[in-house]
């Protein structure tokens, strides 16, 4: 659970690990890497995230003794991470119907201070050929206390993206056949409503089940759950890192207000024949003049390494889709930030550099999951027109 091995291992020792065990320190921390004697040096890429606490915070410094003392707790946490369940058992609201075109399945939530602990969707289609397009044309929306905070196609809200493949993670689970579970906590003060909107041209048999329980709203700490979606087609991928001025900085997310950024899905169709994800991610928080987070490439941001083209699933994210070893065609990555959510007080901006091994284009669809106050805003989202856009057929592997 804590130490996640990467998927692109090779016999030459290429690969890596991601460690999610917090390492507290009071005054300073030095991270070093040592190769075994006699091993030829290879390039190293690394991400180190750290969080500053306010001056004077009491911290117990990380040590072998601390880890040994917490061994049982660590094992329990690992176990829990691999077997996610809803945070609480509450009232179960269930609605089933055949949703006509342009109609919605609707569940109004109980009045008062409550939170949604789990939402389950079951979408039934007789025709597997229509599944990918249908899951894109069914939209999950949610509104709390008079404000719509969620509007995302079900395929993408599930963490799978185009084609709505299988997902197995802490907040999200999907069997790739129309059953989806979301365990994102969605608190509210007075009222709320959850909907599945059918943008397709045919009726769809659907069930939505919601687990709601009382939760006190704390005016200083409580935030609303937000999720939004953005799609753009034909984004230019440059192929020369030294020509940075010719690389597009594509905007993943622009948020205003107070909140915490909790994760994202990148679902894409790569028109270029080779790896597209060399570009670094750059995240600006509040008054940053230089990004707080400055990465080393798409795969590293998504906790894997070396242009990965193998689907994988972990409690912290994964790669639900990788059709071809060349990276051509459909690919998807997601990441959820359990311990490393990014708090912001005024604004949050996330760009990614469009850089690959060969010039070309990619179609990107990103879903972001975050919490914000009632005034929080998200910019540049996509809507009905994009959700109805016909998906491209998957690329077949060529014989050469």
Explain briefly what this protein structure is.
With about 400 residues, the chain is mainly beta. It has six helices and 25 strands.
SSE diagram, text form:
Layout: E1 3-5, E2 17-19, H1 64-69, H2 71-82, E3 91-99, E4 104-108, E5 114-124, H3 131-137, E6 138-144, E7 147-153, H4 154-157, E8 167-168, E9 172-174, E10 179-182, E11 186-188, E12 192-198, E13 204-214, E14 224-237, E15 249-256, E16 259-270, E17 281-285, E18 293-294, H5 298-301, E19 312-314, E20 317-322, E21 329-336, E22 342-344, E23 347-353, E24 360-372, E25 377-378, H6 384-387
Structure class:
mainly beta
Rounded Rg: 22 Å
Helix percentage range:
under 10%
Gap between N and C termini: 39 Å
Tally of contiguous helical segments: 6
* Silhouette: globular
Mean pLDDT level: 93
User: What is the number of strand segments?
Assistant: 25
Beta strand %: 35-45%
- Which regions contain 5 or more consecutive residues with pLDDT less than 50? none
Query: How would you sum up the major sheet?
Result: 7 strands, antiparallel
Which descriptors would you attach to this protein?
single chain; mainly beta; 7-stranded antiparallel beta sheet; 25 strands
